[in-house]
Structures are given as C-alpha cells and as structure tokens.
Design goal:
- The structure holds two protein chains of two kinds.
- Chain A is an alpha/beta fold.
- Chain A folds into three domains: about 180 residues, 3-Layer(bba) Sandwich (FAD/NAD(P)-binding domain); about 110 residues, FAD/NAD(P)-binding domain (3-Layer(bba) Sandwich); about 70 residues, Enolase-like, domain 1, CATH 3.30.390.
- A five-stranded parallel beta sheet of chain A has the order 3-2-1-7-19, covered by helices on one side. Chain A has a five-stranded parallel beta sheet with strand order 9-16-10-11-12. In chain A, strands 22-23-26-25-24 form a five-stranded antiparallel beta sheet, with helices on both faces.
- In chain A, helix 6 links the parallel strand 11 and strand 12.
- Chain B is of the alpha+beta class.
- Chain B has a single domain, classed as Alpha-Beta Plaits.
- In chain B, the strands form four sheets. Chain B has a two-stranded antiparallel ribbon with strand order 1-8. Chain B has a two-stranded antiparallel ribbon with strand order 2-3. Chain B has a two-stranded antiparallel ribbon with strand order 4-5.
- In chain B, a hairpin with a 5-residue loop joins strand 4 and strand 5.
- The longest helix of chain B is centred in the last third of the chain and has 11 residues.
- The chains are: A alpha/beta, B alpha+beta.
- Chains A and B meet through helix 7, strand 22, strand 23, helix 8 and helix 9 of A and strand 2, strand 3, helix 3 and helix 7 of B.
- The structure holds flavin-adenine dinucleotide (FAD) and iron/sulfur cluster (SF4) (2 copies).
- One iron/sulfur cluster binds next to helix 2 of chain B.
- The site of one iron/sulfur cluster has 13 residues of chain B, from helix 3.
C-alpha cells in the first residue's frame, strides 16, 4: 500500500505513527509545505518569548522518521490533486502516486484588507518562519498592536508582553476570546493581562495603518484614536489550507466533508486536523474546530483507517486551555450555548476563581474553569459521555 | 512495555485524612495524588486522582512538545525542559494524573521509583496508617484481577457515567 500524508502538523504526524504501527510494511511519503523538520506549531509562542529554545520545538529526533518505507519531502508543498490518476503533484514537479492519501494541510491566518496592511511593521504568527521574523522585529519594540482577540492573538500577546513594552489589543467584541470564554472568565483573564502591561481597546476595529514616524507606524482605530506602534500583529482567525486543491471534486463547505471514518467524498482520500469539517460532540453541528487535541485524535484514527482498520472517530470535543503565567483558564465543550441552557456560576473575585457548568435538558454541555483547573480532565470525560447532572454540586463533590 | 505496579486505593478503608497527600508533598514537589474517601462522603465512591501510567497515555499523545514519554519500565514521565505549561495533558487525562508546580511545569507520580530501588515503598503508601493505599504488583495478578484493577482506575468516573448514552462515536 502506498500512503501519502500531506502535512506534518499534529494530524499528519499522528497519522504517520498510526500507519506505521498498524502496517509496518507500508510505504509512506510525508510531505510538508515548510522547509526543515516538523516542529510544534503550538509551541511557537514559547519560542517567541524565549522560554523554549529553538531545538526543543521539534517533537521528534531525526531518527524517529527514519524507518524502512518512510520517505520525507519537506519544503515541497502539494500543488494539485489528480484524482483520476491518484497522484499528487508537488511544487518541485514530482508526482506522487498513492493508494491512500491524507490531507492534513492545516490552516493559515485569515487576512483582511485594510489600508496599510502590507507595511513592513505588520506580521502574522503561524509558522516557524513567522516566529523567527517576529523574534527579530520584537527586539527593541516598545509598542505592539494586536489586531484580533482570539486564541492566537492572546498567545502572541503573552509571548510579547515584557517589561518596558506595551501590548494593545484591538478587539471588536466586548471581551477577549469571545468564542471560548464567557464574560466572567474573560474579565478575570483580562485583569491578569492588564496587570502585566496589556491595554484592551474593546468594541473598536482597526481602520488603517499609516507609516511613520521613523521606523514606527500608526494604527488608526474606528473611534478615531491613533496608536503609535513598532509592530502590528494580525490575528483574526484562520482558514483551512485548501486552495491548493483548486477545483478537485472533493465535497467541502468550510472544510473538507468527511464521514465517520474521516474519509472524504473521494474513496481512499482522508482528511484530518484543521482542514476537516466534522460533527461537534455536543451539538452534532458540523464544525472546523481548529484545535490541537482534535488534530491529534483525527490523525490517529485516519492513519489507522488508511492502514485498513475501520474505526469511527469520536465527534470533536472542543476543549482548550488559556495559560498566562500562573493563571490558567480551561474551556470545555460548548459553554456558550444559549438555547435552553441553564448556567451554574460560582465566582470568587477575591481569589480570582470562577467555575461554571452549563446544562441543557439535564445534561452537561459545557464548562469553564478559571484560576483552578484541577477538574478539567474529569469534566471533559463527563462531557464526552453526555452525562446527566441532577445537581451541579454533585459534580464538584465527585472530583477527587 | 507496560508498568509492573499500580497504586491502588481501597475507598472503604480510606477515611480522607490526607496523610498520603502530605507525605507526597514532603518529597519536595506539589502532591501528585489526591483522594476522596467514601467513608468521609457516605454514598459517594471513593477515588484516587493519580497517574496510572496508561499503556497508550492520552497525556503523551496530546503533548505538543513530546515532553511526556513512556519509559522502558512503562512509567510515563515528563522531560521538564520540554514542558511549556500548556495543560493540554491535564485536560486529556480522565484520572487527574497531571499536576503542575509553581513554575507551571508538568509533574506526575513516578511510583517513587527511587525509593523502590532502595527497597522502600512509595512515600504515600508508607504514610497510610489505614492500609488503604497499596502498591499492587500487576505481575502477580491473574488477567481477571488485572482487568478489575484497570476498571477500578475509572471508578470515580463511573459514579457519574451511569447516567446516559455515550456521545462517543465508537473507536
Ligand atoms: C501560535 C499558535 C498557537 C496555538 N495554540 C493552540 C492551543 O493552545 N491550543 C490548541 O488547541 N490549538 C492551538 N493552535 C492551533 C493548532 O496549532 C492547530 O489546530 C494544529 O496545529 C492543527 O494541526 P494540523 O495538523 O491540522 O495542521 P498544521 O499544524 O497547521 O500543519 C499543517 C502542515 O501542512 C503543511 N502544508 C500546508 N500546506 C501544504 C501543502 N499544500 N502541501 C503539503 N503540505 C502542506 C504545513 O507545512 C504543515 O506541516 C495554535 C496555533 C498557533 C499558530
Ligand atoms: S497522566 Fe493520565 S493519561 Fe497520562 S499516563 Fe497517567 S493516567 Fe494515563
Ligand atoms: S503542559 Fe507540558 S507536559 Fe503537558 S501537554 Fe503541555 S507541554 Fe506537554
């Protein structure tokens, strides 16, 4: 069996490990669009801040990849999928024949047109190349503006906040991380960020970026204010990396549509990670979760199925952690569901702890923990199982 | 290789005194286990939150930096220099196995391997006057007993899990 794995992120690497385990005689080509060995995208903020040395960005040593039947193509992105001939065309001109193909090409930052968006002070944080560039540019920067208020915006701010430097968030919503956190949890996190030198501009958007004075630029906000800035970071969310597929006949909406086994509409072609649209574990609605843990899960199952198993992947359970130095917040399931939900909140402002359970028709559908996340793994299991909860206190009492 | 020994809490004997937790913390790191006694909470299942050194650890699979590794003895341990403190492992582990120190680095029960090499039981086991905590040798158990022990690992979860159908899609 000839396997081609496109993408060396968590989904692609988990698939490679699974295929190898399930079928030691498999021939596998691992393709990455980026040069150099696969690195942990999620660890980039820690490299940017200097907490993690560059050599620890690589999850596996070179020897991990070296095995009979495994071929590596780094820095040679796929440019075309020829389904009738079952071939992938790479940028370098080679054609790879496959029996089974995994599309795990991840996502890329979403850009929005705005006057000045192409100025040299404006950056994104998604690849190792971005992080290296930012590391250089950030040295000496005193004023940083982040356009966006989601996960990557938060992580970039966390990496860049340092003594003598201010980080501004341009946040269209009323609070940070509005897709992951409720108002209460966001307020606690924002307090910690503001104490560390972050400035939040809520309910405004970026209108324009103008060059100067000197090496700086000026960020104009929709309310007329102007922020002088050494560095502007755009973090407005991500889009699945599917452009390279052109008009290849694979069913897609936001992401590639897959069945329970993660096979796309084309037989033998699988998708996993940030490119796959899958049912949400709680709502059953199709989602593109774009989360690390989901990518690992899907990569593992897709790999096993490529090697001949017939497993169905668990629906995506959204769960994430937001860590700012010693302050930790966890968001689990769908805590922001509105329709027919009952929310149980416990807020202790003095101790800066908050926990909330969201129930719908007697079942747990979401939870947020701030300040103390000890119970996160336990709650995640309850959410996965769709457990009935009569009394929220019963849940807290059951956590050892 | 799978781990040879397993920490086991008898919830009926445990009165929730917390001596084990104190003894673990006395080793110079945040306590790596927590207990909830059923004697102190009548009607509830007793439970031990501690790493069980899974054969296919969910914590290690999700860790972005490959910080958590299964050693040749089956014990799952972090390589602290690689830990970025993201807590994905904590969320992934259903058994409360991951704990974090003041620097935000991951730690977990190592079954007191060092004490074991010198012929001593783990600090928590030695501290438990009620004999509720034991280090069970899996090698000496029948397959049936091993299965029972494995199930006991999830006992505190079951307390809640009788309630409804699984949302899991299979696998
Ligand atoms: C700074 C940052 C912090 C993050 N923090 C978190 C977090 O805390 N928690 C969380 O859950 N998620 C986080 N994420 C998101 C998480 O990293 C992604 O969800 C995850 O990496 C998706 O994995 P993937 O394997 O689908 O794709 P990716 O990791 O995006 O990898 C895609 C791979 O495909 C390759 N590729 C792209 N195009 C092609 C092509 N045409 N041909 C061949 N190869 C191609 C790329 O080179 C890469 O190897 C973060 C992301 C970033 C950027
Ligand atoms: S921390 Fe949890 S998932 Fe990891 S090995 Fe221990 S019990 Fe298993
Ligand atoms: S907290 Fe540390 S050990 Fe846990 S997943 Fe993150 S990097 Fe890995």
């Amino acid at each position: 069996m000839r396997h081609v794995v496109l993408g060396a992120g968590p989904a692609g690497l988990a698939a490679l490990a699974s295929i190898r385990r399930a079928d030691p005689s498999a021939r596998i080509t691992l393709v990455s669009g980026e040069p150099g060995p696969p690195y942990a995208r999620m660890a980039l903020p820690y490299y940017l801040s200097g907490e993690l040395s560059g050599r620890l960005l690589y999850p596996h040593p070179a020897s991990w990849y070296r095995s009979p039947g495994v071929e590596l193509r780094f820095g040679d992105p796929a440019e075309e999928l020829d389904l009738p001939r079952r071939e992938v065309l790479l940028a370098g001109g080679d054609r790879l024949r496959f029996d089974r193909l995994l599309i795990a090409t991840g996502s890329r930052p979403q850009l929005r047109e705005a006057p000045g968006i192409h100025l040299p002070q404006v950056h994104t944080l998604w690849t190792l190349a971005d992080a290296r560039r930012l590391r250089r540019k950030a040295a000496g920067a005193q004023e940083v503006v982040i356009w966006g208020a989601g996960m990557v915006a938060f992580l970039a701010a966390k990496a860049l906040l340092a003594p003598g430097r201010r980080v501004h968030f341009v946040c269209r919503a009323e609070h940070l991380l509005r897709r992951a956190l409720d108002r209460e949890a966001a307020a606690l996190l924002e307090q910690v960020l503001e104490e560390a030198g972050a400035v939040l501009h809520r309910g405004v958007n970026l209108a324009e970026i103008r060059p100067g004075p000197g090496k700086r630029c000026r960020v104009l906000l929709t309310d007329g204010r102007e922020l002088p800035s050494d560095l502007v970071l755009v973090a407005l969310g991500v889009l699945p990396n599917l452009d390279w597929l052109g008009d290849a006949p694979l069913a897609r909406r936001q992401g590639l549509l897959v069945d329970g086994s993660l096979e796309t509409s084309a037989s033998g072609v699988f998708a996993a990670g940030d490119v796959a649209e899958v049912p949400d574990c709680i709502t059953g609605e199709p989602v593109v979760p774009a989360l690390w843990s989901v990518a690992v899960d899907q990569g593992r199952v897709a790999g096993l199925n490529m090697a001949g198993h017939r497993l169905s992947c668990d629906p995506a359970l959204r769960a994430n952690t937001i860590v700012f130095h010693r302050y930790v917040v966890a968001t689990l399931g769908c805590p922001l569901l509105q329709d027919g939900t009952v929310v149980h909140r416990q807020l202790d402002r003095a101790r800066r702890t908050y926990r909330c359970l969201v129930l719908s028709r007697g079942r747990l559908v979401g939870a947020i923990l701030a300040g103390d996340v000890t119970a996160a793994g336990y709650l995640r299991t309850l959410l996965r199982r769709g457990v009935r909860v009569a009394d929220p206190d019963e849940v807290w009492e059951a956590v050892p | 290789m799978t781990v040879k020994q397993l920490l086991h809490l008898d919830p009926q004997r445990c009165d929730g005194c917390g001596d084990c937790v104190t003894a673990c913390a006395a080793l110079g790191h945040p306590a790596r286990l927590r207990v909830r006694s059923s004697a102190a909470n009548p009607g509830a299942n007793g439970a031990l939150a501690c790493c069980r050194h899974c054969e296919r650890p969910l914590c290690a699979a999700v860790c972005p930096t490959a910080c958590l590794q299964v050693g040749s003895n089956g014990v799952v341990l972090p390589r602290p220099e690689r830990c970025v403190g993201c807590r994905l492992c904590l969320v992934a582990c259903p058994l409360g196995g991951m704990v974090f120190d003041a620097q935000g680095k991951a730690g977990k029960c190592d079954l007191c391997l060092e004490l074991g090499r010198r012929g001593h039981p783990p600090a928590c086991v030695a501290s438990c006057a009620k004999g509720a905590l034991q280090l069970v040798d899996l090698g000496n158990q029948s397959a049936l007993q091993r299965r029972a022990l494995a199930e006991h690992r999830g006992a505190h979860l079951k307390h809640h899990l009788g309630g409804g159908p699984s949302r899991a899609g299979g696998a």
